[in-house]
Amino acid sequence: MHYLVQHPLLAHKLGMLRNKNTHYKEFRELASEITMLLTYEAMKDVHTREVQIESPLEPTTAQHVDENIVVVPVLRAGVGMLEAMLSLLPEAKIGFIGIYRDHATSQPVTYFEKLPEPTGHALAVIVDPMLATGGSLIRTAEILKEKGFRRIKIIAIISSPEGLSAVEKSHPDVDIYTGSIDRCLNERNYILPGLGDAGNRLFGTE
Ligand code: URA
User: Fold this and answer.
1) Closest residue CA from atom 7 of ligand 1
2) Whether residue 103 has pLDDT greater than 80
3) Residue 56 belongs to a domain
4) Fewest CB atoms within 10 A around its CB: which of 7, 82, 102, 104?
């Protein structure tokens, strides 16, 4: 199932992110801010437990997030969303997955994998700014399931309609949160209108 997160402030920031004249420093800041807005929505149903605290005036109860959360950035561009995730989920563990698409076979190839154990009904949150063909996210969710994760969400800043359908078909149990569903993929599998290559724009490479 996918959720299109809609809010005027998010739409404003997405417009700035897409703009080709936005350079990497501002691009990184915007990607972080958008990630926080998407995470806020995606974490709506996390469990909390009641704790006793004392305000300066009297004892009271408060809520504490009571989940084992594992944030999984897909290398390389997912790293651009990590700091924002951790600012909202400071106790999360982090797993990394590196995947590229083999040009000859068009199949996703995993070149790096380091994941924490899925202890205590852990919730894995995969982050990748661009859900394009969906190939790497489908493979990442498979790897997480093979490792024993049963609760998985995906946060993607921009998605293509084709990629969303592909991920939903392969993983109907995985919820996807995205800030935009763009028009389509081009012949090189870039999202249109999209924002170009997210990794290059985040890290200042070409
Ligand atoms: N990855 C990107 O960085 N951009 C796209 O448009 C598609 C995949």
Assistant:
1) 190
2) no
3) no
4) 104
If you take atom 2 of ligand 1, which residue's CA is the nearest one?
197
State the CATH number of the domain containing residue 142: 3.40.50.2020
Residue 105's pLDDT band, with cuts at 50, 70 and 90, is confident
- CA proximity to 190, closest of 129, 140, 139: 129
Give residue-wise pLDDT tens across range 114-132.
Answer: 999 999 999 999 999 999 9
**Sequence-ordered list of residues with C-beta below 8 angstroms from that of 38, at least 6 positions apart, any chain:** 5, 10, 155, 157, 177, 178, 179
Ligand 1 within 6 A of 198 CB? yes
Q: Which residues span the domain enclosing 79?
A: 2-46+65-203
Residue 198 CA: nearest ligand 1 atom is 3
Question: Could you read off the pLDDT of 71-87 as tens digits, one per residue?
Answer: 999 999 999 999 999 99
The count of domains in the chain is 1
Q: 9-12: long-range contacts (C-beta < 8 A, 24 or more apart)?
A: 9/37, 10/34, 10/37, 10/38, 10/179
